[in-house]
Every structure is written in structure tokens, then in C-alpha cells.
Amino acid sequence: MECLPIFFGMHLIWWLFWILLIVWIFALPYDIPGSRKSKATSLDILNQRLATGEISEEEYQKKKKLILEDYPVNKSMDQSKPKEK
Fold it and tell me: How many structural domains are present in the chain?
């Protein structure tokens, strides 16, 4: 019986294991296409900017009105405006 090449049998499994492990380690930090990660909406970003004090209440209302005109949302999301002082 002839000797099988070195890449057959258990040796092939170990090569596959190490190659897959290395690919997984280097691919892990990057976004995988098709993965479902929640992205912040423009209203979320606007609310965050108001909360951190980057924009005033007046500027917030103007920008929110522009956003809602361009991209109408349901009423439950519209009620997420910050409370007045």
C-alpha cells in the first residue's frame, strides 16, 4: 500500500483548523457584511447632541422638524422629544 500524501487524514484537519482560526482572528474586528447591527437614526443622533449640549433647544426643534418632514415616522417615535425645563 502506498503512503498517502501528507495533507490527507488528520493532518489536513489540523491545517484547516489553524487556517480557519487565523482567518477568524483577523476577520473578527471588522464588520461582517450582512450582520445586523443597530445603526443610530438621525433622530437618535439629534437627541444625543441635545443631551450633551452641542445644540440649543431651538436648534433642536428646527432640525427635528426638518428630519420629520423628510422622513415621517410613527407617532410613538415623535413623542421621544426631551422634556422642557
Answer: 1
